[in-house]
Amino acid sequence: MSKVLEVNDLSVTFALRNSEVRAVNDLSFTLEAGETLAVVGESGSGKSQAFLSIMGLLARNGRTTGTAMMGDINLVGMRTSQLDHIRGKDIAMIFQDPMTSLNPSLRVKTQLSEVLVKHRGFDKDKATRAAVEMLERVGIPEPAKRANAYPHEMSGGMRQRVMIAMALLCQPKILIADEPTTALDVTVQAQMLDLFKSLTDDFGTSLVLITHDLGVVAGVADRMMVMYGGRAVEKGNVNELFYDPRHPYTLGLLHSTPHIAHRAARLDPIKGLPPSLEHLPKGCSFNPRCDFCFDRCLEERPPLMPLAGGREKACFYEGPLQTRKVA
């Protein structure tokens, strides 16, 4: 497979009134053509900010360093006028809340068709027909009727499908979905994940799935990158990370996730709270919450180290990790 995105040493810093905070620290990863990469971690781990920075959508006080290469184009540091030719066409993003992402005063067909007019040069009628066809493709019933609706006239699941349709209209190389199932009930979540899988297969689009829910990852993603305290702490094949985690934080996330085969077992959540990015602990950022912490973890911050089979972890502990505790 060929790389469609290669990110190296990506850091995101926000200037505060009397200080600054680094939300993402030296993040490096690749995304292959047609694959699904899951980026997981608790709120505040830096996963959303990393991809907002790649899209050029940081808040005004944000600053990005490093590189994010799409072919020979570095997305980091590009002017907005340059990014406008790439966003929506080659790389698209679906945000967590579709109600705030859609314009409440414009009909759905207007918001969809303008993407095609801008990026593919369609006239208004052709763009509208293509928009209706895509609404049907993403499973919206009576697509011609729904195209004339306003966002508030649709359910949360339908609005999310509209956002997916908008993102896929130009058949982008990369689709970034930021917590796409958070506001949806379980049944609609399953439908959305099936939709992502079928559409990325059909279009050959590479998908980045940003989530804190490991249940969303299983069966959809090919690889997984676990983030904590603004850093990547483990990377690898999804099945390997699920059944043989090598970082205590990944293990903690798995213990915090309900499993149908362990319905009688109590969940074993990670103790404590995620660290403040302004005041990260000395040494490993996870050491205050880690059951496997030892002296070295309190003094040194572990780098991301390669393991056999192409996996990586940022942890000094080399002993066995129990995959699931039994109540």
From TrEMBL:
The keyword Ribonucleoprotein does not apply. It is found in: Cell inner membrane. It is a peripheral membrane protein. Residues 5-254 form the ABC transporter domain. One of its GO terms (biological process) is peptide transport. Pfam families: ABC_tran, oligo_HPY. GO terms for molecular function: ATP binding; ATP hydrolysis activity. The keyword Cell membrane applies. One of its GO terms (cellular component) is plasma membrane. Belongs to the ABC transporter superfamily. This is Oligopeptide transporter ATP-binding component. The lineage of its organism: Bacteria, Pseudomonadati, Pseudomonadota, Alphaproteobacteria, Hyphomicrobiales.
